[in-house]
Design brief:
It is a single chain. By secondary structure, the chain is an all-alpha fold. It is 49% helix and 0% strand. It contains two helices and no strands.
């Protein structure tokens, strides 16, 4: 009877536990991820928003910009 109790409490080769090394690896990856995200945000802030396109100046006509002048011949 004591053999069954001792065998049920001991771990076998099929029992895999991460232990301290697994925790340290995951914690290290988490810390590295935080620093990488902070660096990425810093780089994105340096880029800034794209420049706004300026509106073409009003010429007083309703023709779209780039339209042919009146009387121009098309080939």
């Amino acid at each position: 009877m004591t053999f069954l109790v001792a065998a049920s409490n001991s771990s076998s080769l099929n029992d895999v536990e991460p232990g301290l090394l697994g925790f340290l690896v995951v914690a290290g990856l988490g810390v590295a991820l935080v620093f990488l995200l902070r660096s990425m945000n810093k780089q994105f802030r340096k880029i800034g928003p794209p420049p706004e396109e300026t509106e073409p100046e009003e010429t007083g006509t309703d023709e779209p910009v780039g339209a042919e002048p009146p009387g121009a011949k098309r080939d």
